[in-house]
Every structure is written in structure tokens, then in C-alpha cells.
Specification:
The complex is a heterodimer of chains A (about 240) and B (about 260). The termini of chain A are far apart. Chain A has eleven helices and no strands. Chain A is rod-shaped and about 130 Å long. With about 240 residues, chain A is mainly α. Chain B is about 30% helix and about 20% strand. In chain B, the strands form four sheets. Chain B has a four-stranded mixed beta sheet, covered by helices on one side. In chain B, a hairpin with a 6-residue loop joins β7 and β8. Classes of the chains: A mainly alpha (about 240), B alpha+beta (about 260). At the A-B interface, α2 and α7 of A face α2, β2, β4, β5 and α5 of B.
């Protein structure tokens, strides 16, 4: 064999071995197993931890809530929609408590009025709809129903009923302020219901020393408003918010 | 003698009848046995008992635009589930609001992907129509992002999901540029490409993707495009379906129902 050919062969052999070795070292192990990619990457992605446990997981313990939730208008809303990812909570319930959104800002994400929302979806104006109160005061998020004014009053006084339903006084029954004789329903113009006749009536909740929940606004009956009755300035069916 | 013979024949008759019956049953049992054998053989061949089999699936998602209320819970759930950075530039899925005014001018916005809700619409002209459109990676059957990847770090799996190999990606951003849907971003922590995986770690465990799981109105539907019993096939049958940018020939697997022509 001529000398130059031997040298050429040696160079070729070195190149071939070099190529084989570098291929072995550079190309990842599972590359090309299933296609032009690293098959092991699929397994890595598959093994990521799950954070959202899924609807079935909640019913294992919270049977009572899941039962009423399944009947209500929110049945299509997953528990984890409001309570956040629950996989860790399902693993060890005591160590990982789930939050519940109780603030007023949360519900309008779905129910605040937006013209882009589909027609017929229940929406409210967060500025005027019973302002300042958290939504859960009146609405049970697991089984939401709009609060009803007693049909007996709303049948005739529909305007007042609708106004009151979105006001801060939504949860007060009509009869809380209006003592209504049963005959008012038979002869409404002859026998009329009562109206609060004194400032002290409103003061039962709003006076400085009243024994009512602390979030109710207070005034000093002695100095506020002089000789006028409360409802001569404040409309009790839609009291202004401060 | 003759009487006795006849008696014998009479005695043997029931026996021969039972033999015929036996043969008859055999002829029936043969195919039955074959059928059962075949099904077990088939099962062994396809490996249904071996857990998740990628080849038997082909995933897709349906989006019902007329049901989306733009609450942004899907975007929030996606970020929670997949550790997507919370900054408002990184989204695997996001919700866009389209506002078309009376002059037929379209404006699109998506403040923080829709997580914090949408501010009031400010337009001087009256609104002609307005709606929300959830967007995500379209998991194309013919993905441009996979074509341009110089190292094979992004790929289509056997079940039709386009994934990114984070350990192999060199962060060159070719795929981000190639995606016609703007569905990809560079993760600022790893400096590698990232995108929607249809929650691959969930769907292979028989769970729904996080966005589908939390959607309160059922605007997102997830399922198999192949299997007839899947909710997606039913969704596609009962709605007029459009895909995004069909002229790009990417063959998307995210199907939109009631999609306005402004979006296409």
C-alpha cells in the first residue's frame, strides 16, 4: 500500500472514531427514540406536581357543602375556582387551609356589569348595589339566590321592593319598620301601615350607644338633624353609603 | 326379537340426539372462544392495561366564545398550576376583550391577561358588539414553532401536544417569532421558551387542564379529537366551529364556537 494512502486512512479512521465518540457524548440519551426530540423530556413534564385536585376530591370530605352546591346556580363553578388550588389541602387538610374570598372585590370579577359579558348573565353595578357590604352578607356563595322581599308587600310596592333589594337595608323585613295590620291587604287605602314616628326608632341601630353590629354607621341623636325625623332627610329604602 | 330391537333403538335415540346437541353447542362455542381470545390478544397488543398510552389520544380544546364572561379565573389557575411568573407579560393563556364600535373599528385589550377583571369600556362612539375571547397555544398539528427550533427542544408528542424541553432549549427565541398566535414567551428565570402544555402532567393522569377545571360557565371544553364519546367531539358537532388564522395552514386543535369574524 502506498504511504500516502495509509496516512489518509489513518486520518479517516481518526475522524470516524472522533465523530462516533462526539456523537455519543453530545447527543442526549433518549434523543430520537420517538422523534426528533428527547423522549425523557416528556416524562419530566408528565411528572410535574398537580396543584388543582379536581372536583371529585372535595366531595370526599365536604359532603354537606358539595350537596347544596350541586343543586344551586353555582353548580358549574368548581370549588377551586374560589378556594384556590386544593391538591395540597387534600393531601394534609390541617396543614394546608384553603382561603375563602370574603371581600367585596372578588364576586364582581364574574358578576360586575360589563357589556362584553353574554346577555342574561347575572350582573350588578358594584357601585350602587348595596355598597360597602361584602356580598356574602346576603348571598350564600354555595347556593346563591337573590334575597326576596316578602311577596305580600312586593306585589303592590314593587318599586320599593326592587330599590330596597340592592340597598344596605336589603336584609330588613318590611315589617321591621312598618307595623302592618292584616286588614291593610284587604282595604289598603283605609287601613294603612305604620311609619316610624320618632328619631329613637332609627337610633335603635344607629345611635352611639346602640347594641347593634359595629359596622353600622353611628350618629349622635342629640346633635344630629335637630328636630327632623330621620327619614325626612335619609331615604330608608336606599340609605346613602359613606 | 324385533320388538326388542325397536326398544333398543328407542332407548338409543335420546343419546344420539344429545350428541347432535353437543356438536351444535361446540360449533357455537368455537367462534365465541375465538372472539374472547381475539379481544384479549388485541388488548395485549395495544397494551390497555399498561397505564397511559400516548398513541391512543389526540387532544384538543373547544372554546365557546358566547359563554366566556371574562372573569380571568382560567388565567389565574394556569399561573398557579404551571408556575408561570406573575408579572403581566407572561401568559400561557389569557383573555382578550374585543370592542367593535359603530364605525366598525375594532379595539382589543387584555389588561394583565384579564386576571384582575376588565376596566370600563371607554369609547366615544357607541358599541356595536363586544365579547371576550380566551386565547392559548393552539397545539397545531403542523406547528411552525417546531419547524424552526434548531436543536429539537420543542416537539409534537404522540398525543398531539406541542411541548418544550426546558433542559435542552437554548433560548434562541426563533419559536417565539414563528408562532402566529403569540402563544410563546421566554421564561425570565430559566431563559428558555415556555408555552401552554394543555397541562400535560394533568391530562396524562386523567385530570382536566387547570383552566378547564375552574371555568365557571363551561366556556372551555377539553377532550379527545379521535374518540367519539369525548365531550370535544360533541362540542364540535353541535357548534359552528372556527379556528384562528386557518390560512396559515397550521391545523390548530383549539376550536372556537361563535367566533366573530373580527377575530379570525
Amino acid at each position: 500500500m502506498p504511504q500516502q494512502l495509509t496516512r489518509l486512512l489513518i486520518v479517516f479512521a481518526v475522524l470516524t472514531v472522533g465523530l462516533a465518540v462526539s456523537r455519543q457524548m453530545l447527543i442526549p440519551k433518549t434523543f430520537g427514540e420517538r422523534g426528533h426530540y428527547r423522549a425523557a423530556a416528556v416524562t419530566t413534564i408528565q411528572q410535574r406536581a398537580v396543584r388543582y385536585a379536581g372536583r371529585q376530591a372535595c366531595g370526599d370530605c365536604h359532603t354537606d357543602i358539595v350537596e347544596i352546591h350541586g343543586k344551586g346556580r353555582h353548580q358549574s363553578v368548581a370549588c377551586e375556582n374560589c378556594h384556590g388550588p386544593a391538591a395540597a389541602h387534600a393531601q394534609s387538610p390541617v396543614d394546608n387551609q384553603l382561603p375563602a374570598p370574603r371581600k367585596r372585590a372578588y364576586c364582581p370579577l364574574c358578576h360586575g356589569y360589563d357589556p362584553s359579558r353574554p346577555t342574561g348573565f347575572p350582573q350588578i353595578d358594584p357601585v350602587s348595589h348595596n355598597p360597602m357590604k361584602p356580598c356574602i352578607t346576603c348571598h350564600n356563595p354555595h347556593q346563591p339566590e337573590p334575597p326576596h322581599v316578602p311577596e305580600e308587600c312586593g306585589a303592590c310596592h314593587g318599586g320599593i321592593a326592587r330599590t330596597k333589594a340592592v340597598s344596605r337595608h336589603a336584609l330588613l323585613a318590611c315589617t321591621q319598620c312598618h307595623a302592618t295590620p292584616i286588614k291593610h291587604k284587604v282595604t289598603p287605602r283605609v287601613i294603612s301601615p305604620d311609619k316610624p314616628r320618632s328619631r329613637e326608632f332609627c337610633g335603635q341601630c344607629h345611635a352611639k350607644d346602640a347594641k347593634s353590629p359595629s359596622e353600622i354607621p353611628r350618629i349622635d341623636l342629640a346633635t344630629h338633624g335637630g328636630r327632623y325625623l330621620c327619614w325626612q332627610c335619609h331615604y330608608p329604602h336606599l340609605p346613602e353609603a359613606n | 326379537m324385533a320388538d326388542a330391537k325397536r326398544n333398543d333403538a328407542a332407548k338409543q335415540q335420546p343419546e344420539s340426539a344429545s350428541r347432535r346437541e353437543f356438536l351444535h353447542t361446540c360449533s357455537l362455542a368455537g367462534p365465541l372462544l375465538l372472539l374472547t381470545l381475539q379481544s384479549t390478544l388485541l388488548e395485549a397488543a395495544t397494551g390497555t392495561e399498561k397505564g397511559y398510552q400516548a398513541r391512543e389520544h389526540r387532544y384538543g380544546m373547544g372554546v365557546d366564545v358566547s359563554r366566556c364572561i371574562g372573569c380571568g379565573r382560567c388565567v389565574d389557575a394556569c399561573k398557579n398550576e404551571n408556575d408561570v411568573p406573575r408579572e403581566p407579560y407572561y401568559f400561557r393563556t389569557w383573555v382578550e376583550r374585543y370592542v367593535i364600535n359603530s364605525a366598525h373599528e375594532t379595539s382589543v385589550d387584555s389588561p394583565n391577561g384579564g386576571i384582575d377583571g376588565f376596566p370600563g369600556i371607554t369609547t366615544e362612539k357607541s358599541i356595536l358588539r363586544t365579547f371576550f375571547v380566551p386565547k392559548l397555544c393552539n397545539q397545531c398539528d403542523d406547528p411552525p414553532c417546531v419547524q424552526v427550533c434548531p436543536v429539537g427542544a420543542t416537539f409534537s408528542t404522540e398525543d398531539g401536544v406541542v411541548l418544550v424541553d426546558k433542559d435542552y432549549c437554548i433560548g434562541c427565541r426563533y419559536c417565539v417569532q414563528a408562532c402566529p398566535y403569540g402563544a410563546r414567551f421566554i421564561d425570565p428565570r430559566t431563559r428558555t421558551a415556555d408555552k401552554c402544555t394543555f397541562c400535560y402532567h394533568r391530562i396524562t393522569r386523567d385530570l382536566l387542564p387547570a383552566c378547564v377545571e375552574v371555568c365557571p360557565t363551561g366556556a372551555r371544553v377539553f377532550g379527545d379529537v379521535k374518540q367519539r364519546a369525548s365531550p370535544l367531539v360533541q362540542f364540535n358537532r353541535f357548534h359552528k366551529i372556527h379556528t384562528l388564522k386557518p390560512h396559515m395552514n397550521t391545523k390548530p386543535k383549539v376550536f372556537y364556537a361563535d367566533l366573530d369574524e373580527e377575530v379570525r
